[in-house]
Write a structure and sequence with these properties.
Number of domains: 1
Radius of gyration: 17 Å
CATH superfamily: Spore Coat Polysaccharide Biosynthesis Protein SpsA, Chain A
Strand order of the largest sheet: 3-2-1-4-7-6-8
Order of helices and strands: EHEEHEEHEEHHHEHHEH
CATH architecture: Alpha-Beta Complex
Structural class: alpha/beta
Shape: globular
Strand content: 15-25%
Number of helices: 9
CATH topology: Spore Coat Polysaccharide Biosynthesis Protein SpsA, Chain A
Largest sheet: 7 strands, mixed
Helix content: 25-40%
CATH class: Alpha Beta
Length: about 250
């Protein structure tokens, strides 16, 4: 596979907080994947400091979360890995692009939890098979994958900017799942999706302690949580790794 045929895209706009998270996400990705290019889509006039190979500035799209599907549709790569900006890469992800030899799009599922109102989610199982998690997508430029993302974008863009809120009914993930569930069996066959293990490629914080207990922490390649670039989270991660070393 030629180098310029695959790469990572990140999308971040609005507050500096999200731009800084994207810089951190790109730096950690590059640490383990130094030859794979990274493109940032943003609505801010920023410059790269070595972490991005390319910055594409897009304004006038409305809420910054609407950069997400726009970035996917305008990816400069034939084979694209998308990660949310609040991620930390912990290993090589090069193997993912070969998956697109056989599939058009790759999803991970949400972790299965009890979701008490105004309280911390309680881990139940690694996989909630009824819900795709929108923080990691792998896709090629096939007609079925492109059509699916266009439908996702078109539907989400109808949400008024003032209502957009990640993690709610007005976030992009709910729209993603609605669009996917509405696909007919024939359209799902054409889309040809693969389901990748979230405990490796999209590990949300509610599974972290269970991963440690199950001896699976070292398998994680992508951590996904708000604030991973802060000193508090880095200290916490180091403590988890220390405990594993003592186990």
């Amino acid at each position: 596979m030629k180098q310029n045929k695959h790469g990572l895209i990140l999308c971040a706009g609005g507050k500096n907080q999200y731009i800084n998270e994207a810089r951190y996400a790109a730096k950690t990705f590059k640490r383990f994947n130094p030859t794979i290019p990274v493109t940032l889509f943003t609505d801010q006039n920023i410059t790269a400091h070595g972490e991005f190979d390319r910055i594409i500035i897009e304004t006038g799209l409305g809420h910054p979360q609407k950069l997400k599907m726009h970035g996917m549709l305008h990816t400069p790569y034939e084979r694209t890995l998308y990660l949310d900006s609040d991620t930390r890469t912990c290993g090589s992800l090069a193997e993912l692009f070969a998956v697109l030899d056989f599939y058009n799009i790759g999803f991970t599922h949400r972790v299965k939890c009890k979701w008490p109102p105004n309280s911390t989610p309680i881990f139940v199982d690694y996989v909630d098979y009824n819900c795709l998690q929108g923080g990691m997508l792998l896709f090629n430029k096939s007609k079925p994958a492109t059509a699916f993302i266009k439908k996702w974008q078109h539907t989400f863009n109808q949400t008024p900017d003032e209502l957009v809120q990640p993690g709610t009914q007005y976030g992009d993930q709910v729209v993603l799942n609605n669009i996917f569930s509405e696909l007919t069996p024939n359209h799902k066959t054409e889309l040809n999706p693969v389901y990748l293990p979230n405990r490796i490629y999209n590990a949300r914080p509610w599974m972290w302690e269970q991963l440690k207990r199950d001896g699976l922490w070292s398998d994680v390649k992508v951590l996904h949580a708000r604030g991973l670039n802060t000193s508090t989270f880095i200290t916490t991660l180091n403590k988890i790794k220390h405990k594993i070393g003592q186990g």
